[in-house]
Amino acid sequence: MLIIGLTGSIGMGKSTAAKRLAQLGLRVFDADAEVHALYRGEAVALIEAAFPGTSANGAVDRTKLAEAVVGDKAAIGRLEAIVHPLVRAAERAFLIAEQKRGAEICVLEIPLLFETGADARVDVTIVVSAPASVQRERVLQRSGMSEEKLARLLANQLPDAEKRARADFVVDTSGPVEDSGAEIDRIVESLRGRQGSALARWLREDDNTDQDAETS
Fold first, then answer.
1. Is the entire prediction scored with pTM above 0.85?
2. Domain at 1-26+104-216: CATH architecture
3. Can you tell me whether residue 175 is helix, strand or coil?
4. Residue 191 contacts residue 4 (beta carbons within 8 Å)
5. Are 121 and 200 in contact (CB under 8 A)?
6. 184-211 per-position pLDDT tens digit
7. Are residues 94 and 107 in contact, defined by beta-carbon separation less than 8 angstroms?
8. Where does CATH 3.40.50.300 sit in the chain?
């Protein structure tokens, strides 16, 4: 099974690209959606313990959590130490299920793919990209967004140019959706029949980690 890692900076069109991949019959794991689910479930008590007062009514209050960690690298690191392993476990379960289902290709949609080292757990990377002016216009149209907030978000992401340099494929999303969709179609067609090794490597690493934990 081949694993595609789909990523791109904020406002570059990851969700639209993911929808196109799904329309082609590929199953897509949305890391952002998983985080939202964790903030309503498994991660709530852990985050409340680390950041008291950031949850209410059995769910994490994302605004309060953002206020608790913004500009504090140590706090962000503590939050990531809680959330990232849970997301990774969910990704692993998704991939194993897809392998058992006989899927040829599946997709991990991960906003911080390169930043978190998750690119080591996929076979192929696709980066969606557009000029900074287009990105800025798209993002500032979002409710609650400001120039300051956008600057903070971009500060936590690799520059677009670096993502494009590290990608196996780059999809330009600045034009009509039909154009970027056609490019995604061509990429997927070129990948059909290719065998991946990322999942087997991932499972071996996890098995070795478990064995080390048992003998320590």
1. yes
2. 3-Layer(aba) Sandwich (3.40)
3. coil
4. yes
5. no
6. 999 999 999 999 999 998 888 766 655 5
7. no
8. 1-26+104-216
Q: How many residues does the chain have?
A: 216
pLDDT in tens, 4-56: 999 999 999 999 999 999 999 999 999 999 999 999 999 999 999 999 999 99
Those residues with Cβ within 8 angstroms of residue 33's Cβ, 6 or more apart along the chain or in another chain: none
Q: Is residue 51 within 8 Å of 79, Cβ to Cβ?
A: yes
| Residue 152, C-beta contacts closer than 8 angstroms, at least 6 positions apart | 70, 71
